[in-house]
Amino acid sequence: MRKRAFPVFLAGLILTGLFGIVVTSKVSGINAQDKNSGMSREEAAKLKSPVPYTKESISSGRSIFMRNCTECHGNDGKSMVDVIANATDLTDPKLWKHGTSEGEIYRSIRDGAADTMPAFQTQIRKQDDLWHLVNFIRSLWPESHRPKLSESK
Question: How confident is the model at residue 45, as a pLDDT?
Fold first, then answer.
């Protein structure tokens, strides 16, 4: 009887471990499929925002930024270097490693950027909200690098 107990015990441990991994990944919203479901950088570079770059959009994006991004990027977008060493200074697009087109910024927010920036697709679910955030981030750039402001509807 003892010889059978060990394999049953071992199988139980393995199943418990696998169950724990599945539960943890479901709770955190991350699984292998999600990690691989993002778009390529080339696809992102071609992506155009359906949300115009307006004062209203920038204001909406600012609210989203304050709720989701200040912990790493700070209230001013210059990054919290003393807290998160790898957070990007959002005010200087010349320093960015993952692209500065509106689609590439959208992709970095939605899917994450390398190991340093997590994906926010589960926290910011509405597509328009992601684009408002893109517009706000672009408003932090030096004026010479910002898109032209569109008229409000």
Answer: 96
Tokens of 17: 């471990």
d(CA 8, CA 25): 26
Residue carrying the six token digits 């190991």: 115
Structure tokens at 66: 């304050």
Residue range 127-144, pLDDT digits in tens:
999 999 999 999 999 999
Torsional sign, CA 21, 35, 131, 90: positive
pLDDT at position 106: 97
CB proximity list for 133: less than 8 A, separation 6 or greater: 61, 64, 65, 68, 69, 109, 124
CA 95 to CA 77: how far, in whole Å?
13
pLDDT for 109 equals 96
Interval 92-121 mean pLDDT: 93
Q: What is the mean pLDDT of residues 77-106?
A: 87
Going from the C-alpha of 55 to that of each of 9, 123, 138, the distances in angstroms are 62, 23, 12
How far apart (Å, rounded) are the C-alpha atoms in residues 65 and 131? 12
